[in-house]
Amino acid sequence: MPESIFYRQYMGESDLPHIMALVQSELSEPYVIYTFRYFLHQWPHLSFLAYPSDSGNADPVGVIVCKQSMHRDLTNRGYIAMLSVDKKWRKRGIDYGEKPHLLASALVKNSMRAMKEGGVDEIVLETEYDNFAALSLYESLGFIREKRLYRFYLNGKDAFRLVLVVPPPDQQQQIDDDGENTPPAQSSLAQRYRRSMAHRAICVSPYSDDEDEVSSR
Ligand SMILES: CC(C)(COP(=O)(O)OP(=O)(O)OC[C@H]1O[C@@H](n2cnc3c(N)ncnc32)[C@H](O)[C@@H]1OP(=O)(O)O)[C@@H](O)C(=O)NCCC(=O)NCCS
Question: Could you identify the atom of ligand 1 that is nearest to the CA of residue 90?
Fold first, then answer.
């Protein structure tokens, strides 16, 4: 069975080498230390590390690095910059069906919770168009594909921009209740939320890399 995991916020420079090691071994972009510091020094409360609780292991097995700022003076936007889970600790939920532990999902949820405390309106990120694990993870949390960005990465690959619209807390409760209890025809707030998400979505079939299906935005 999987060990239990605990999560904590970024605490300071001593976390930096661990975060860099996990990210640099897995993400194709060659981030420099200043990029890490840009995020971690300004938004330490949005970045989390995951540790196995009973191993005495000093090294984290998962990290997430984020920011949150106003976009065009209009939207309080959260941004997930980096997410990485040690290979040995991935797909725990898939491997251990009876007691699933979704490590990356838990990291994203921790950051989302912290962003919500800061009044976030939407959360965005980019991922390589063929990163099926990441696309599947974010889509399972309600993110949708908003744009395809040509040759976004230094390795020449395209990216998908994913977005999650976050309703204000009072409306979120109503949307959850509507979704569960009210027939679709009457659930106006939930419907409006779904429509606003659908409006922003591009039309791509799951995991397609067909150039014809690229967004024009
Ligand atoms: C993407 C990544 C963070 C997922 O980590 P993880 O801990 O295995 O993910 P979780 O266990 O939380 O999985 C949550 C959901 O994501 C999806 N998922 C995760 N890995 C998947 C895979 N290899 N194939 C398909 N779906 C996958 C599943 O829907 C899963 O839910 P389920 O188990 O109930 O089906 C990990 O593969 C990783 O670090 N990859 C390299 C770095 C990277 O690509 N980062 C994202 C850049 S934006």
Answer: 8
